[in-house]
Structure formats: C-alpha cells, structure tokens
Amino acid sequence: MVRTFVSLSFLLLPLLIFGQKDSYEKRMDYLFDKGYEHLYSNKDSALFYFEKIDDLAVLEQDWSSVADALNGKNVMAEYQNDFQALHKNLLVLDSLFEAQKSYFQSLPENILYQNDLLYHKGQYFFLINDFNRARNEFDKTLNLNNDSDDPEYTTEKLQYTSTAYSYLAKMYADEGKLNLANNYYERNIRFLKHNLPDEKRFLYDNYDLIAEVLKKKKQYKEANSYLLKNLNYILRHAEESGIPKILNIVQNHNNLAQIDSAVFYLNITKNLLNQTSPSLSSYYQVSAETQQHKGEYLKALRDYEKALLHAKEKWEDHKHWEIAHILNKTGLLHDHFGQHKKAVASYDSALEQILGTPSEVNQHKVVQILNNKSSSLNKIGDQSIAALKSVEMGIAMLDSLKPTFKSHSDKLLLIEEAFPLFESGLKAAFILFNETKDEGYLEKAFQYSEKSKSVLLMEALLASKATEFAKIPPELLDKEKQLKAEITQVEKQLNIDLENPALQNRIFSLKKGHRDLISKIENDHPQYYDLKYNSEVINLSEAQQLLSNEEALINYFYGDEAIYAILITNDTNSFVRIPQTENLVDDILEFRNLISDSKSDLNEVTQFAKSLHRQLIKPILSSDRVLKKLIIIPDGPLNYIPFGVLIDESSDSYLIQNASISYVNSATLLNQINDDLIENSKLLAFAPTFEGNSKIEVERSGLFPLPHNKAEVNNIIQSFEGKTYVDQQATLRHFKEELNDYGLLHLATHAVFDDAFPEYSYLAFTQSGDKMNNNLLFTADLYNLNTKANLITLSACETTIGPLQKGEGFLGLSRAFFYGGAQSISSTLWKINDAASSEIMGQFYKELSLANSKDEALRKAKLHFLENNEDNARVHPYYWAGYIISGNTAPLKPSIINTWMPYACLGILLLLFFGYLYFKRHRAASV
Predict the structure, then answer these.
(1) Cα separation of 157 and 147, whole Å?
(2) What is the pTM of this model?
(3) Rounded Cα distance, 380 and 678, in Å
(4) C-alpha–C-alpha distance, residues 658 and 665, integer Å
C-alpha cells in the first residue's frame, strides 16, 4: 500500500472552527485529541469520540467539524481495512459537501477539504482494486491543485499532489505497467525536489516505491540501493510503516541468493511487529520465501499458512487479490519441491479468489497463475488436456489485457512475462499430437507459436490500416502525429542531456497527452479499437495457401526446455521437438562470432555449420522432398543465424546452394504484408560521404569513409529507373523529401547500434550545414515516417541487430522500417565488408531486374560472389552470408529500363536488318 506522508486529516486540525464560544472550542479540541489518540490503538474508543464531535457540531451547524470527524473515521477505517465503513463515510461526506456547498466554498481552507475528499475516495477505490475509479479521483486531485492559484495552504496542496502521483504510479506498478509507473515516480521525485526540497521523508518514500518497480523488473541490487537510503530513518524511529520497506530488502537479498543478509533484515522486521500489525501477513510471506531459499519446505509451508490466515482475517474472508497472491506463491513452493498436484490445488484456490473480477490487476494475476498452473500440469504427466485448457484461458485473458498497456516498453514486459504460457501450450500440444496424431493439436501448437510472435509489430500495422476504415477525424490523426513527432524530438534532446528536469517534465506531459489521445480515439471509435487489437492469427490451412510447390515455411519456437519447429508446405505439415542441449545457445553465439569475423578459421566455421544444421534443420526437413524456397520464422537466439550458411553433411553444401531463404516474424505478419502489394519499382539510392571525423552530438566514434558505396549505387541504378544521391547530396533532408515517390530504397551507409538507448540507434547521411545530428536517421524517427516501399535495402553494418526480445525478435533498425509499411527489407547481421557489399548488391539488383523473387535474387548474388571468389579468402562466410531478406519476397514489377530494353534491342536489330537489305538492293540496282 502507498504510505501517505502523514494522516492528511491532521492538516485540517488547526483550521477547525472560527468565531465560536471558548467552551465549545475547548470541548471540540479535547474530543479531537482523544479521537486521534485512540485512532490506531482502539477502534471503539476513537469511534466514540468522533461520534461525539459529530453530534455537537451538527447542533452548532459547524459543518467543517462534521467533515473533520468523518475524515478521522476515514483514516481509522483505512487502517482497519473496514471498507464498508469507509464507503459509508464517503457517501455521507459527498452529501454533506453537496448540501452545504456555499458554506464550504466560503471557507479559506475549502481547497483542502476538496483534496481530502478526493484522497479518501481514491484510497478507497485503490484498496478495493477498482483502479480505474481510483485513477479518476487522483487525476482530479492533480487538476484541482494545478488549476488553483490560491497562494494559501501551498505546502498542503503540494503534498496532496505528490500523494496523487504516488498512488497513480503504484497502481500502474501493480498492473504490471512498470515503465509507466517508473515515469510517474520519477516525475514525483522531480516535483518534490523542486517544490518541497526540505521534505526528505517524502522523497525517501518515493525512492522506496521506485525500489518496488525495480524489484519487479528483477533489478534487485538497484532496488536495494534505493531502499537502504531510508533504512536508518526507519530504524531510528522504529516505525511500523517501515516494515514493508525492510521486507522488500529481504526479498531482494533472497533473489540474489544472499540468504544470511535476508535473515538479518527479516529479524529486524520481526522486532518491529506487534500482534495487531497489518503487516503480519506480508512478514510471513517473506519469511516463507526465505525458508524456501534455505531449502526448508515444511517451514516455508507453515509460514505461508500463517500468512494466509492473517490475510483472511484482514479481509474478513472476502475474496481478495492478496489472498490469491499468497495461494499462488504457495503453489510455486509446492512446484519447487516437486509437489505438482498440490501446486495445482493451490493455483485453483488462488483462481477462485479473483476469476470473474474485472480489474486489470486481477486479470494480470490470473495470467500469472494460469501460466504457473499449466506448467505444473505438464509436469504431472497425464494432464496435457487440462494444461491446454489453462493455456487457452490464459491466452484469452492476455488478449483482453494487452490493449490496456499503452507503453511500448510495458507491452514488451507483459509479452515476455507471458511467454512461458505459450511454451506450456506447445509442450502439451506436442505430447497430445504424438499420442493421438490428431491434426487439431498441431493446429493449436501453430496458433500458440503465432500468438507469441511480433505482437507489437502486428498491432502497429493493424492500427495503420484501422485509421483508414474507422473514419477518425483528420484533426485527431494530425494531432496524434504531431505528438509522436514532438515526443521523438524531445527524447533526442534527452538522449544528449539526460538530467535536464525541464525536458523530463516535458516528455512526461507529452506522453501522457499521447496516451490520453489514443484512449479517446479508441473509446470514441470502436471500429478502430476492434481492428487495432484484433488478436486472431491465421490457421494452418491459411498458411499453406501462402505457399506454392517446392516452398516450405519453418516456424520455430525457442523455449526454455526445448525448441519446437512446425514445417508447413502447401500440402503437408510436421511438428518436431528439438531438445535443448546445455551448449546449444553457446554454440549459436560462437558460430555467429566466427562467421562475422573474416579472420576466423574456416574449418571451425564448417564444423559449427554442420552441427547446427544437424540439430536445427535435419530433424524437420525430409530428405526425399526437394524444396527450392524456405521461409524461416526464427525465435530467440536463432535470430542470430543466417540459415543459408548451414551445411548439409549429406551433400557437404551450404543450405543456400540448394534453396533460397527468407525470413519473417510470423506467418500472420506475412499474410498481412501480402495483402497490399506495392508495384512501384522506381529506385532511390543514397551513398553518403564520411571523412572519419564526422561531428555528431551523441557520444559515438567518428564515421569512417566507405570507399565503395558510391560505386555500389552507381552500379545498381543501371538495373532500375530512379535517382541517386551521392557524396554531399546524400542528405537526410533529401531522403525525407523523396522517399514517398519510390518503391525501392537503397541506403549504402553507416549504421550505428546504441546498446544503452536502442531507440537511438541510427543510419547516417552526409552532414549538411552546421546543425549537428541533422544527418542521423534514428530508429525512433522511423516510427513516425511513412516508409511504405516494396523493398528497402540497408546496405550498412548490423542493420538487423538490436535488443533481442522474446517473441518480437531483434528490435533494430530494419524492424522499425516495417512499422512504416515496408513490405520487404534486405538487411545485415554484422559489419559487412564495403567492397564485398558493392559486388553482391550490384548482382542482387541485376537479378531483381530479371524478375527473380527477392530471396532468389539474393541467393543468386551470393552464389555469383562465391563463384568469383572460390580461390581466395573472400569465400569466408563473413563476406557474403550476412545479408538476409525479410518479408514479402515476390518479384518486383519490371522497371521501365528492363521493360523496354528488349524491345529497343529488337528494334535496333530490325533497323539494321532492313538497312542492310536496302543497302544491298540499292547497290544491286546501281550495278
């Protein structure tokens, strides 16, 4: 629970009554003193004194004292978790303020009464997990204090404002929206430092809450660094309110396997407890976790039972999220010690507490519990059908939950957290498919794999289409684009000046404005919402229709226990499970290091290539069927592998020598891309110039010359009609001005990947003018550009690479172009050699101009390169294997050059022939 700075009702005590008799004032002072004296220790006594205050104040028509007495009752009800009493008090307060509106409006401290009512309403809705209504009350608090220019009670208004920020952040954290929560906490810290710099305790409270977010992100050391800042104060004052903070320290030490430290702080907590403490349940939960880390199953179980007992007493046996949370952790305890049936029973009891309740925090917890339950059912051995039912329920809940996550980062966290649910589904489906040979289980496995892939990219593409059909007013769409562009611009400035509070506050306001606008569009335009969040994926039959003869699609799912692969052709399907070996990930990463290093031993490369082919390709590809085209849906570390370089031991040849290979994020995404083919095949190519000391504002090394990029674009323009920008003309301004008119975009330039801030990885253009950074096209910029093109070629270094996210793949530059509507992208997996790139790209475009499919054109270009270099060092995969093609691979529409060239040649031959005949006849006639 969020801890407020002080009981906010105490702020009102000096303002109670004006112009009344001394005896009445003294009597009221006495009653308030006695009421607050018993507030936390004796409920009945406190209630007695507040009732006396109410009786006296009504007789005197002293409505402010009536309100103060009710607020005292509210504080007591909140402490005692007496929600019925709290709700009743709030209804009475509402009626009082409505009936006596003119009275309260005449009071100088009216702003405080409004704040206090909003606070207690927000607190009530927060405690009963009605976060939407709680958010509404705290948003009203922010608006009330922001709109009020009354200089009186400034400190109190600032405290209410800060409390509102804390509650909003806490609710987002409980819903799993951790990055959004962190944004609110950081906003509150800046607010406190600027407006209440002397209130260190308030600042430390927010540090503690940020620590909770870090703990949920599994950043345990960072979390403790915040918590320990406040520990001395807690210990010095021996405050019970500090117990949850110390328990967080214990949990972090447990997760870091620092058990002695965990026990040390747990004992400190125990000394602060009393038998009526509301933190007893939390204490026993954390004690149970500590016992579990020590390997003490029975002691841990005993402590969870105590925690459950106190929680049920606290909530008076009403169903509640906290009870479900304890039962879920009890299930994890059973599962950890191999008691899987007991674990399932605990999960079922947890689900009974929260199933059917609409709050987002409950939905999030349901997904977690079903995730755990399905995993335990799979471990029992004969519960695969039950496991599938849990998976189905969990995925349905996940589909309803995803639209409530507006932050890109929080969506990524949600998807990663739910990923084991899909693995449980695949595991159960694989077992049932092998037992029954029922194609329905293969269908389920395919749908689980598809649903785990590229959720955010699909959502972005669907949102783009939804705007075309939902008839959203143009002014709203323009406003949304403006907000996105401004957010990107301010974030670029923040990337350079990280500690600028004005920029931090600006980006907070812009992002909140953007979320509010998106929510308005979604609420006001149901068709847009339905199209944008359409969670359906294509089925096996629809996937088969994407394929022609001699084509196959391999859909990989990289789980913690195994890799699942589904092979689809136009008339057959197969499903295999590839066991995870201890060294597989290491082998994949080592192989990637070897092939991306021109100096590595080719024999060693060959051995790894054969080994990985044996593990990843051979189990699923039948040797008796000839396939000329493979579409790979990679997952996890498989994204690092250019599959074409794997070697089939039976033929001792690279995979690409026998089949063209392309990649896609999911079959559903491929179907979406294929829906709206772009026929424009005009080429726009860029070859910027660099001098090795290009001045860039962000902290990166200089960009060195690319001696062959100009020749590269001059070469490829021979195959297609279009325009090139080279040297000083290859500017970002020209790119933005021209890109919408061309279907083929080719960028022969530098790409720089930013580990710390992946959104600010960039492609570099020629520096123009004195303004710094006007030559950098950031990943973040691409989300705001319409890069709708048939093919975008990023002939640069590591344009595919980025953070590897479960289900989403690489979050790099190439993926960002798909957001703008690109249908296919040719990109690179490592730092490509400039000279080799020029040669391969020239041949690639030549093959494209001859109406080859994009994957086949790239295949032929690579084979042509290998043939030309078979006797020198450039036969090493470093020089040719790094290029990959993703997305739609259909042949390009022939360019004007290639459409008319054959006819022009034929015309010239005919003219020469007729000229020869004419000359011959004319000569014969002369004779």
Answers:
(1) 11
(2) 0.84
(3) 51
(4) 23
Which stretch, 249-258, 465-474, 708-717, has highest mean pLDDT? 249-258
Q: What would the pLDDT profile of 26-82 be if each residue is shown by its tens digit?
A: 888 889 888 888 877 788 888 898 899 888 989 889 999 999 999 888 888 887 778
Round to whole Å and give the CA distance between 73 and 56: 16
How do the domains of the chain map onto residue ranges?
1-229, 234-314, 540-670, 676-894, 895-927
Which residue is it, tokens 């028509």? Answer: 61
For 232-249, the pLDDT digits (tens) are: 777 776 667 788 889 999
| 676-894 CATH | 3.40.50.1460
Find the mean pLDDT for residues 566-595: 92
Place of tokens 């043939």: 867
- For residues 348 and 370, what is the distance between their CA atoms, to the nearest angstrom? 9
- pLDDT of res. 839: 92
The reply to whether 1-229 and 234-314 are identical in fold is yes
CATH superfamily of domain region 1-229:
Tetratricopeptide repeat domain (1.25.40.10)
Look at residue 288 and give its three-state secondary structure.
helix
Tokens representing residue 868 in the block: 């030309």
Write b or e for each residue in 689-701: b if 16 or more Cβ atoms lie within 10 A of its Cβ, otherwise e.
bbeeebebebeee
Q: How far, CA to CA in Å, does 697 sit from each of 337, 415, 493, 560?
A: 54, 34, 10, 41
Q: What percent of the chain has pLDDT over 90?
A: 45
How confident is the model at residue 15, as a pLDDT? Answer: 34
Q: Tokens for 622, please give them.
A: 């039948």
Give the Å distances, CA to CA, from 433 to 4, 172, 214, 552.
Answer: 55, 40, 41, 21
Burial class (CB in 10 A: 0-12, 13-18, 19+), 323: buried
CATH topology of domain 234-314: 1.25.40
Mean local confidence (pLDDT), 868-873: 90
Helices (H), 617-731: 667-674, 709-716
